[in-house]
Amino acid sequence: MGRCDLHSAKGKGHRKGLRTVATIEFAKGVLVMLATLGFVEIIRKDIDLEDAAQNLLYALHIDPDRRLSHMLVHAAGRMMNADVATVLGIALVYVTLRFVESYGLWRQRVWAEWLAIISGAIYLPYELYNLIRRPTTVHWVILLINIAVVAYVAWVRWDEISSRQGVSGRLAPDGD
Questions:
Q1: Among 5, 108, 150, 151, which one is least packed by beta carbons within 10 Å?
Q2: Cβ-contact 116, 101 below 8 angstroms
Q3: What is the pTM of this model?
């Protein structure tokens, strides 16, 4: 079995999993893109985010004295002070990275698998820190999904590397 044959045999076994990860990464990019477009629209229309947050709480019949309510209003106030160019720049880099990564994973490219491992692992300490500070269901879900993605793609890389070493190890004694 040649090198291309081995990669294509391995690829068929991991195609569905890598495409699932690609879909997750694409969805993350789309969500950030939509949130950024919403933020730009709010800034463009000069909407007071603190008032909007308080109106949302009122519309949803959420007690404004609750901790979550205070956090929402505080976050909205911080967004009003955000530098729009910085927010757009960070969002553009993040969305581009997610889309490039999802394309590469969909096409089963090795560079995309490494990118997924590295970019996913970079967020793990931050997500763990958030979970320790405020253990919520959302933080748990985000952390567990990210761990699953990093672990799965690392396993795919390990599987391919060990398969190649196994083949090269068997061919070497025969003189091939």
A1: 5
A2: yes
A3: 0.69
